[in-house]
Design goal:
Elements lengths: L2 E2 H10 L13 E4 L4 E6 L9 E8 H4 L3 H5 L1 H21 L13 E2 L6 E2 L5 E3 L3 E8 L3 E2 L2 E2 L1 H20 L6 H21 L4 E6 L6 E3 L2 E4 L15 E5 L11 E8 L2 E6 L5 H10 L3 E2 L8 E3 L3 E3 L8 E4 L17 E3 L4 H14 L4 E5 L5 H4 L3 H6 L14 H8 L2 E5 L12 E6 L2 E4 L1 H10 L36 E3 L4 E4 L2 E4 L9 H18 L6 H15 L22 H10 L8
Parallel strand pairs: 1-2, 16-23, 16-24, 19-22, 22-23
Antiparallel strand pairs: 2-3, 3-4, 4-8, 5-8, 6-17, 7-8, 9-10, 11-15, 11-18, 12-13, 14-15, 20-21, 24-25, 26-27, 27-28
Helix pairs in contact: 1-5, 4-5, 4-6, 13-15, 14-15
Bound molecules: adenosine-5'-diphosphate and magnesium ion.
Length: about 575
Amino acid sequence: MSRDASALARECQRIDGRGYPAYKDLRGAYAFDDLTLFIDHVQGDPFAAPSKLRVRMPMEVAGFDREWVLDDVARVAVEDFVARAVRDAIAEHPADRGGSGKSGTIRIDAGGQEVIERSAAVLTPEWIEARVEVGLPAAGRRILGRKAEGLLCETLPRIARAGLLRDSLDEDALTGFVECVRNQAAIRAQLDERGLVAFVANGARLPRASGASDIPLEGDEVVPFESPEAFEVSLDLPYPLGDSHARTIRGMGIARGITLIVGGGYHGKSTLLKALERSVYDHVPGDGREYVVASPDLVKIRAEDGRRVARTDIHPFIGSLPGDRDTRDFSTDDASGSTSQAASIIEAIEVGAKGLLLDEDTCATNFMLRDARMQALVHRDHEPITPFVDRVAELHERLGVSTVLVMGGCGDYFEAADQVIAMRDYRPHDATADAKKIAEANPGSREREADAPIEAPRGRVPEASSIDASRGRRAVKIDVRGVDAMGFGREDLNLRGVEQLVDPSQTRAVGLAIHHAARELMGEGVTVAAILDALEARFDDEGLDFLDPFARRGEHPGALARPRRFEIGAALNRLRTLRISS
Ligand code: ADP
Ligand code: MG
């Protein structure tokens, strides 16, 4: 039952000057003329995590196209745009910050450069809702009732009207945003039929402002991407491109198979690969990478010594280890660079990766290569590693797994490569024919080292009882400490090697998804891939809210953003407690 806005004002006045816990009396729903305010969770004190509120506006008031609500791509784009609009409105209408602790702060978990389904704003046929966090005002621990009244009855509704009402949004920016995201989805949908794993539009601006920032580098020194003629493809767009009215877009196609990115140091190789890595997600207009689009099944792989590995069959890459350890069923609490890389590749393929992205900067050299001189010095019988160079072609031919590899330092991959992109002064060139000629003229004396052909990895079955998100009195304790680290129960889970996690709210969703999977999905014979299928089906049907216990009762779900299956699997595989039953 919702009360009206004047009841909220009266309640705020009534509790003025009382101890902070009296704020709990405000919990409930309040009907304004054009929206409803839900106060779901009230913080325990002014310094605690802020209170969780939702503002909901009926769709006939908000005025978004029904067609947008019903199409998943457009819906996510509108939700994302609205969350950003609410964030801008918060900056424009700051609340009175007077008071102790978090008094007067208002936050929304709007995204960064990527457009990802998230819990911050939700669009349904009936309504649109923004989920915000608010610091309820206090002096010391005494409630500032008048300030609370202003915050909840005036500032917050004003912010909601600025962000949720279509009439108050910039219409061109809104439709441009939705069309840009839809164009990206349309490009992604064409990749497969064109035999491509990725596309980089002419004019794309790939470099970032700094190594610590994801915003575009600005200035005259930025060299816009321009495809070599040989790799240029033209794809269709459902919506015109910017002001040009063009319904096609030209750029570089990266074909299925094996693609090498070569070139001198500091010529833009890693920048290109990083853009591909990120382009499994859509980007906001103006990012510079909004028309860099990759297949959603590409997985970045890197060496990650120290990681946990649980019963993974790494023998295609690592034969018998010292002490006769069986690498068909390999576990370790402290992987080496090469074993970690082998395990990450096998795990990714196990759950459906269709392409691998590797950068020499973050690969284990002994995993990637073994040249003729080293073959002569260290006999094969004493080297357990079958280097990646001897498996890369087979991965594609037998398992349909493509590879895009940055390799500036070694030509041993020339034979295997289908496409060689040479970066020079940030400009790509077609070096395929030259690389092939050089490989023929200098065959070298290194010998291929793979023996048995590679086979599809077996499906591993995780044990639910090995996964425990509880700590102390809390049944579920998942603390996100940034995009690449989380406390999961009593464990510190290190996700630095999982480079395609891009948002801390994805990290939180990963933690909750693993907990959910352990409670509801894992069982006898249920493989990691089957678990990820079930999670994805649930995300598709219900969105993200089901992950959060409060949201299951219809309340504010906290900050969540949708992770890919590969990142959920990668996090599960890195849990130090994980046991695999078969
Ligand atoms: P590499 O991997 O070939 O050594 P990087 O990709 O790390 O080179 O790029 C080196 C530097 O050049 C980085 O600081 C990057 O931001 C910058 N850079 C990359 N691409 C461009 C570009 N298209 N225009 C301007 N600067 C670029
Ligand atoms: Mg590099």
